[in-house]
From TrEMBL:
SMART domains: HATPase_c (SM00387). Residues 302-392 form the Histidine kinase/HSP90-like ATPase domain. Its EC number is 2.7.13.3. CDD domains: HATPase_UhpB-NarQ-NarX-like (cd16917). Gene3D superfamilies: 1.20.5.1930, Histidine kinase-like ATPase, C-terminal domain. This is histidine kinase. Keywords: ATP-binding, Coiled coil, Kinase, Membrane, Nucleotide-binding, Phosphoprotein, Transferase, Transmembrane, Transmembrane helix, Two-component regulatory system. It catalyses: ATP + protein L-histidine = ADP + protein N-phospho-L-histidine. It comes from Actinospica acidiphila. It comes from the Bacteria. Pfam families: DUF7134, HATPase_c, HisKA_3. The chain crosses the membrane at residues 20-41, 47-65, 140-157. Residues 164-191 form a coiled coil.
Length: 399
């Protein structure tokens, strides 16, 4: 913590809530300074009178209201100070009240009021001292420099207050922007988790439904195949639960109750596509095939997950809606992007997939800086085509 911040914190902490307390203390201090000529009368040969003391008190007492009515207080002190100087019983040694009101006007009043008050005091001091005898030249400089210094300090306080207000306003704007960014990030994260859970559950449930529907048919004719079918249903369910645990694991740091501390595996990516295609073909009887071309390029972690989920969702739609017998997954690597195409020989868009699945595919591709298209394939059936940028290309697109 710097000395400046420490002083500012201490000043704020000890500043009274009622401004009259501080102003009353300042007025009392000014009155004490004005009264020093009566407290130590032997220090000078000027005549003393109670009328002179009242005029001196008139330069200090109005300071109690200096912040509530700065212009009125400045006018009152501006009248009492030359009156005391002309009355000369005694004349003011130092214009304490004048310096205080010039500081206050410079810090709080409007520009024309500040300039008018400063000019009036300078002219008033010069004119008043011309009517007094035995005034040395240095006394002119002393009084004028005191007034100018008080005015300059007031302007400095005004600038400092404006600067502080600007910083506070900027801090409030940054806080609002940070809150908006946090809310937006939370919304994006909720949408991402919703997409992941939809893809996982839709894929797993679709495979389980297909197997469950086939179970009663094969249980009578081929018991061994029925056992394999139910094993596939159980395996699919366990895999879905494992993937859900990976997603939900980011929502809390502690392990679930009963967890033995086994590590949470990372989200699946492009390297898991062969297993995904094999699993879909094995579980549903769909002739699913994966073809890869080009040299693999590095992908960011979210693009890896997006590529896997896109293929998963497209195959899920094929199983659920297309009534297809064959599905082809093509993975084509280029210098700046990777293309994913899932084509089936099903019913096509007239009765084909739709709803949240295709929306989720487009959202995933857009979130990674890519694009997605879905529609009727040239040879019939349905095709989902997604283009995702590689790591370096994505940084350029999002930068």
């Amino acid at each position: 913590m710097t000395l400046r911040s420490t002083v500012a914190e201490a000043t704020t902490r000890w500043r009274p809530t009622n401004p009259y307390v501080l102003d009353a203390a300042l007025a009392a201090l000014t009155l004490f300074a004005v009264s020093l000529q009566w407290i130590f009368p032997d220090e000078g040969d000027d005549p003393l009178s109670w009328q002179g003391w009242l005029l001196g008190a008139a330069t200090a007492f109005p300071l109690i209201w200096r912040r509530r009515a700065p212009s009125t207080v400045a006018c009152a002190v501006s009248v009492a100070t030359p009156a005391q100087a002309l009355y000369h019983a005694p004349p003011p040694d130092v214009m304490y009240g004048g310096m205080v009101v010039l500081y206050t006007v410079a810090a709080q009043a409007r520009p024309w009021q500040r300039r008018l008050m400063l000019a009036g005091w300078i002219i008033g001091v010069v004119v008043t001292m011309q009517h007094q005898t035995h005034q040395a030249p240095f006394e002119y400089a002393f009084h004028l420099m005191g007034l100018v210094a008080a005015y300059a300090l007031g302007m400095l306080a005004r600038v400092q207050r404006a600067y502080t207000a600007a910083l506070e306003d900027r801090a409030r704007r940054l806080e609002r922007e940070r809150a908006a960014d946090t809310a937006r990030a939370r919304a994006e994260e909720r949408a991402r988790i919703a997409r992941d859970m939809h893809d996982i559950l839709a894929h797993a449930v679709s495979l389980m439904v297909v197997q469950a529907e086939a179970g009663p048919v094969v249980v009578r004719k081929d018991p061994d195949r029925a056992v394999a079918t139910f094993d596939t249903i159980a395996s699919t369910g366990r895999d879905a639960m494992a993937q859900l645990r990976r997603i939900l694991g980011v929502l809390k740091e502690e392990l679930p109750e009963g967890d033995t501390g086994s590590p949470r595996l990372p989200q699946p990516g492009v390297t898991a596509l062969p297993e995904l295609v094999r699993q879909v073909g094995h579980s549903t009887g769909l002739r699913a095939e994966l073809r890869t071309s080009g040299e693999p390029r590095p992908l960011s972690s979210d693009t890896e997950v997006a590529a896997y989920r896109v293929v998963q969702e497209a195959l899920t739609n094929t199983v659920k809606h297309a009534r297809a017998s064959r599905a082809l997954v093509e993975l084509d690597w280029a210098d700046d992007h990777v293309s994913l195409t899932v084509t089936d020989d099903g019913r096509g868009p007239s009765g084909g997939p739709g709803g949240h699945g295709l929306i989720g595919i487009r959202e995933r591709a857009a979130a990674c800086g890519g694009s997605a298209e879905a529609g009727e394939a040239p040879d019939g059936g349905f095709r989902v085509a997604v283009r995702l940028p590689v790591a370096a290309q994505r940084e350029t697109a999002l930068g």
